[in-house]
Amino acid sequence: MTALHSLQRAPQRAPRRARRTRALLCAATLGLLAPLVVADTAAAGTPTEVDVMAWLDATDPAMVIDQSANCMAGATDAVAYRGDRIVVRTGASNNATRAAINSRLNLIYGTPAGTNWVVSIERITFPVVPPATVITPVLVGTLVPRPGGAPHDILGLARRLRSESHVVAGPDYALVPSGPYSFFWPKGYPEKVNALTPPRSNLTPGGQPIGTGVKVDVYDTGLVNPNGGPPLTNVTKLDPGDNELAAGTDQMVRYPAAGHGRAIAGVLNVIAPGAAVEEVRISERNGVATDVTATREMAASLRTLSRPQWPQLIVNSFGTAACNVTAAVPGDELVPVGLEAVAETIDRFDPIQPKGMLIVASAGNVASTRRHYPAAFDSVVGVGALDGTIDGDGSPWSAPARTAPVAEFSNHGDWVDVYAPGVDLPTTHVNNLKFETDGDVIMGMATVDGTSFSAPLVVGLIAERMSTNNSRARDARNAIVNNRAAPLPPCGTTRVESGVSVTLASLSSPATSPPTGPAVTC
């Protein structure tokens, strides 16, 4: 892959402890003392000692790293997408879609009419909404390499398909739990701990653990084999292939987000221990997830399961920013086409499912106001992170005031609906593995940071309300959100945030209990 442009590495926030080996390896191998050029040679001492965009580029040769004004007016963020795929949403046939792609590329490149650029068309379909509403499928066109190795103009193709053929189109964006110019874990790698927070002991009116009767699907890295780590008895995999291959050589994890899905399951186990959690792997075996890989697995799970087995709540802690529809004008964006189709599918089925259906997604971890998808879709609950370590109750999970400062790394803006704790949460993780050459070997338990874990915390609170009040998913969401306090400004700022805080007053308090103490500022 040929990088589109040079990227300046943004400053990293200080992690919880010094990481001298990582810093030296990054500076030596990536040339971080000068502008970072992400190219085929991007590498580092281990896969986890590089930033997100460099790792994607080194791992997937088809990946394009784009921070250009052609992608985003102002180019404040970067995105990654495959340079050999176009994603469209259409009811047209495969042949008609192939013809539309070819005609637009031939116009862009000035190649003869009839030149075929399309290797294959993949069609992703969704269940039919009773009685007979067909949800428009997602079609994925894989392209022939251009002569001389020149990159395809994926953005130009998507824009022409939209403006000239009136076809919803977009790139196949890479999905990451953190954003560009940061390591996958926004305050440093997971850190070893020797004990976990016990699951909440609150009970339903029937005397069962809260969350009982609610199914949660986690679309993520899959479930890493604990190999002796703490058990998660309420967690299953949709399919044997949804196991995560996290182990590498010399006890190093194979990719930066290793254990991400298991950590999410651990958060759910603390907040709503009665919920049935099902893990589905949306990433490839190399650890890379994209709009297409996620849509493929999410759609397949809905087609595979019978409707009584469908989840009521969905956790999506991967996401992406998006390029603008018109390069020079901020505003409408080339949103991930596949994830938008998944959100529409859930919306269509929500009214006719007995307990409803709802997606809860992380807002991202780069302190940006730029919309992050799928969290920014209207029907999806977008979740930012709070720093619950600021108050005096000694627990990162809660705050007596039921609010706390927004975490310094959390994305924010009017598209973020709620905020919940996402700093120093102890949870289940990889076992007998480490994330950096001089790091501790994690033995199944670690502290984690990020909106990736704020989102399942919110899902746990919704599951609690559903199980204690026999309510539908969206009604439960409304109950825990209504009349809640606003999040406090991030430390060192006076910024006023939209959205509300859904922090627990304590781990023993119900999700809708009133505050028990005053707000504690930084």
Q: Could you tell me the mean pLDDT? A: 88
CATH topology: Rossmann fold
Low-confidence stretches: 1-48
Give the total of beta strands.
Answer: 19
Individual helix count: 9
Looking at the overall shape, the CATH architecture is 3-Layer(aba) Sandwich
Distance between the termini: 45 Å
Physical arrangement of strands within the biggest beta sheet: 9-11-7-13-14-15-16-19
Structural class: alpha/beta
Give, in order, the helices and strands: HHEEHEEHEEEEEEHEEHEHEEEEEHHE
**Biggest sheet features:** 8 strands, parallel
Explained architecture:
It contains nine helices and 19 strands. The chain is of the alpha/beta class and 522 residues long. It has a single domain, classed as Peptidase S8/S53 domain (Rossmann fold, 3-Layer(aba) Sandwich), CATH 3.40.50. It has an eight-stranded parallel sheet with strand order 9-11-7-13-14-15-16-19, with helices on both faces. Strands 1, 2, 3, 4, 5 and 12 form a six-stranded antiparallel sheet that branches. Strands 6-18-17 form a three-stranded antiparallel sheet. Helix 7 links the parallel strand 13 and strand 14 (358-362). Residues 1-48 have low confidence and may be disordered.
